[in-house]
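hiii so um. not sure if this is the right channel but i have a protein structure encoded as tokens and i wanna go backwards to a sequence. like what aa goes where. can anyone help
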């Protein structure tokens, strides 16, 4: 097994088919899930993942690599997967809503959360803190649900160290350098 699966973020997660004919098993993203302890329903037309056990699925990438897009597509197509909401000390971007897109905290509140060990992982990136509140991950695991984390490589390493075999990590790359630069420049928020 490789520690990472390189998934170009231009790949689409397939829609549910009507006759069971699809390229679902050939899609390396889902083939990796199957090899890592998940099974695909044998019912014609179903592509729903049936978890043999709950997992922490980490989607990591460089800033602007397509993590959020992939996580949103994955959780829309597979509602049994729940996405954890990251905490940050940065101000909201236009259109972002507290507790929907991120948990927005002041630097002081974030520092308190770090001190009280309330974060599964945390990092200082582009002048702001980011981290995953530990309680929301553990609550979902205790309910038997799998949880998807949208974090950077540094955070992925910290979570793998803390949760071990519960973690499935996937690293994605932008389709190409020009697309990646365009994404970052259009944001105008990352250095």
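sure thing!! here u go:
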């Amino acid at each position: 097994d490789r520690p990472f699966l390189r998934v170009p973020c231009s790949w689409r997660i397939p829609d549910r088919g009507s006759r069971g004919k699809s390229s679902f098993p050939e899609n390396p993203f889902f083939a990796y899930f199957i090899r890592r302890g998940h099974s695909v329903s044998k019912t014609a037309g179903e592509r729903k993942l049936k978890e043999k056990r709950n997992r922490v699925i980490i989607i990591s990438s460089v800033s602007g690599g397509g993590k959020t897009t992939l996580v949103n597509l994955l959780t829309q197509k597979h509602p049994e997967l729940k996405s954890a909401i990251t905490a940050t000390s940065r101000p909201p971007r236009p259109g972002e809503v507290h507790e929907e897109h991120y948990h927005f905290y002041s630097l002081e509140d974030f520092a308190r959360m770090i001190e009280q060990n309330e974060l599964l992982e945390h990092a200082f990136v582009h002048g702001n803190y980011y981290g995953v509140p530990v309680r929301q991950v553990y609550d979902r695991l205790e309910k038997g649900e799998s949880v998807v984390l949208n974090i950077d490589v540094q955070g992925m390493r910290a979570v793998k160290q803390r949760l071990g075999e519960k973690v499935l990590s996937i690293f994605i790359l932008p389709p190409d350098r020009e697309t990646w630069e365009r994404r970052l420049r259009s944001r105008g928020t990352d250095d």
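oh and The chain has a mean pLDDT of 75.
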